[in-house]
C-alpha cells in the first residue's frame, strides 16, 4: 500500500472532516465551509478555556514557599552520569512519577510531552520514532537502518517499539540530535533510553490495577528487596488487555484491533564490594495484538474479513558491571543478548469477499526472527589520571554488535497462498570511541568526542539476490560550555551523525518483471548529518524554576528517503530507499518546570520545526507516475518540500494542583500542527489539540486515580495512504482515487489503583 494526494488547504479543523476536493497538477482547490470554520473556532475556544482553567486554578494557590524546590535530574545515557542542567545537549527526561501521573502504559504515550518528537502508528503501537523530522515510519520487506535508537536496560530494541512498556521504568531519556560519539549508526536523529528501577534495600511489594472503556484492564505487581547482605532482587510483571476502539461491522466484532500484552522483568544486583557492582536484567515480553485500523469510508468501523495482527515475543537479558578498584581508571562493561520473534499482518483490501463484484481480496503477512548480541567496554578517568595538569578528564571504549534478521513474507489472494518471500540480513558493527572534557578556566569547558565504526552487512533472499556492504563510518562532537554561574549553562555544539547505506533487495528482484524499475534504485548510500546547536539551561528563583532552550540547524547529506514503485503485474507497491542530495532542519525547543507554590506545579514544552529536502527529484511520487501503464511521467521536484511526519509546531502544557494534602488534579493540553504522511504524496494530517485530566488520591501505601484522555473527543489521523492518482482501494467506487486514514484514540476514561505493603 502506498500513498496519498494532497489536501493542499489546511483549514485547522478536525481530522475526521476531510475535504472532498481533489488536486489537479498545478491547481489547488480551496474549500472552506462554514461547518469547518465553526469547528475550528470551537477548538480554539476549548483550548483557550483549558489553558484559562489551568491559570485560574494556579492563581488561586500561589502562596509560594521559599523552601519549595525542584529536584535535580540525573541523565544516565551519556559517558558519565550528568545533571540535566549541566548537560550540553537537548534532552527530555521523564521519571517514574511523571510516567505514573501521565498514566502512560507504553513509550508512545510519553512522546508528545517532548518537543519535536513524533511517531507513526501503522500497527497496534508505534514501532518507529521521528526526532526533528528524521526517522522511519514503517517496515515491510527490506531491512531498516533506524534513525532513532531505543535502548532498554542496555539492550538494543531499535525498531521494536512494541516492547517499550513503561512497567517499573524508573526513567526515560529522549536525546535529540545525532549521538554519533556515544551510540553510532542507529542514532542519527537521536536516541531513547529506558531504565528499570533498581532493587530496593528494604522489602517492597506493590499491586496495581486499572480498568477503562473498551473493555480495557490491566493488572501488575512489583516485588523487591534483599536476598542477602550483598544480593538484592526486583521482579515486575503485568498483563494488559483491551478490545480497542475499532468496530468490525462485517464480522460483528469489537476486538479486531485489540491489545493483549504480558511482560515480566527481573533484576539482580550483586554488590560484591565497594568497588564492584553487577546488575543482571532479564526481560520476557509477549504481545498478541490485533491490527484492523483502516476502513473504506474513513471511520473507525471496518469491513475486513481477514483482520490483521501485531505480535511479538521477546526474551532478552543484560549484565552491567561497574568496577572502580584501580586508582587511575574505572571500568564499565555491558553485555546484552536479545531474541525477538515478530509477526505483522493486515487485510490489504480492507473488505470481505462478496463486498463487490469487481473486488480483489488479499492479505499480507511478515514474520521476522531477530537476534542481537552486543558488548561495550568503557574506561573512565579518575581524578588521579586526568590529563594536562588535571584539567582534562577522559573516556575511551570499544563496542561490538552482531545482529541477524530472518524474514518470511506470505501473501494470500482470495484466501489462498499467493507467493512466499524469504530473506536473511546479518550485520556486524565494531567501534572504538573516546571523549575528552577539558576545563578552560573557571567558567568554560571544551568537550570533544569521536567514534570510528566498521560495519559489515550481508543480505540474501529467496529470489537469488545477494549483497555484501562493508563501510567505515565516523561521528563525533565538539562542544563549548559556558557556566555563567552555578545556575546557568550556555552551550554551543557541532555534532556529526551517520546512518548506514544498503541494498534494496526487493526492488532488485522485482526489476525482472517491472520495466519501471531502474538499476539506480538497487542501492542507497550512507547518510551523514551535521548538527549545529545553541542552548541555554538553568534553574532560578531558588530552584523553583527550571528551563532549557535549544536552537538548532541540521544539514543532511545524502538524506535517505522512502519511495515506492507500483507493479502492475501483481497490483502491488514495492518500497525502496533512495537518496536525496540533502535536507535541512531548523528548529527551536523549549522545556520549563515551575513550582508556583507548595500546591501548584506548572510545566510546558514546545517545539518549532522546519524540515525539508534539498535538491531531490522523486520519480516515485504519486504525481510522477502512470501506474496503470507502468511508466514515469516526469519526476516531481521535491526541493524545499517538508519531509514526512515533521509538524511545524508541537506543544504540551500542564499543571499539577494539590487540592488537599492527599488529592491532586493534573490537567494537560497537547497539540500538534499538520504534517505530511509520506514523501510519496502530498496528503497531510490536520492540526489537533487534546485535553487530558487526572484526579488522584494518595493514601500513603495506597492510591486511586480517575483519568480521561482526549476529553474533547478529537478525531485525528496518525497515518494516511493514497494508492495512486489513478485508482484507490474501494471497488464500490470503481477504485476511484481517495485518501485513507488511521485514527488515534478517541475519548477514553478509566480508573487506576495501587496498594503497597
Question: What is the overall shape?
Answer: globular
Largest sheet: 22 strands, antiparallel, barrel
Number of strands: 43
Return the CATH topology.
Answer: Maltoporin, Chain A
CATH architectural name: Beta Barrel
- The CATH superfamily is identified as TonB-dependent receptor, beta-barrel domain
What is the CATH C level class, in words? Mainly Beta
Question: Percent of residues in helical segments?
Answer: under 10%
Q: How many H/I helical runs?
A: 3
* CA distance, first residue to last residue: 52 Å
* Tally of individual domains: 1
Radius of gyration: 26 Å
Strand % is over 45%
The overall pLDDT average reads 87
Class by helix and strand content?
A: mainly beta
Low-confidence stretches: 1-67
Structural topology:
Elements: H1 34-59, E1 74-75, E2 82-83, E3 90-95, H2 96-102, E4 117-120, E5 128-131, E6 148-152, E7 155-156, E8 169-176, E9 190-196, E10 204-212, E11 216-226, E12 231-242, E13 247-248, E14 259-273, E15 276-291, E16 301-302, E17 308-323, E18 329-347, E19 362-381, E20 392-413, E21 416-439, E22 444-461, E23 466-485, E24 488-499, E25 502-503, H3 505-510, E26 523-524, E27 527-540, E28 545-557, E29 560-567, E30 572-579, E31 582-595, E32 600-614, E33 617-618, E34 625-626, E35 631-632, E36 636-637, E37 649-658, E38 663-672, E39 688-698, E40 702-709, E41 717-721, E42 740-743, E43 748-756
Parallel strand pairs: 6-9, 13-16
Antiparallel strand pairs: 1-2, 3-8, 4-5, 6-7, 8-9, 10-11, 10-43, 11-12, 12-14, 14-15, 15-17, 17-18, 18-19, 19-20, 20-21, 21-22, 22-23, 23-24, 24-27, 25-26, 27-28, 28-31, 29-30, 31-32, 32-37, 33-36, 34-35, 37-38, 38-39, 39-40, 40-43, 41-42
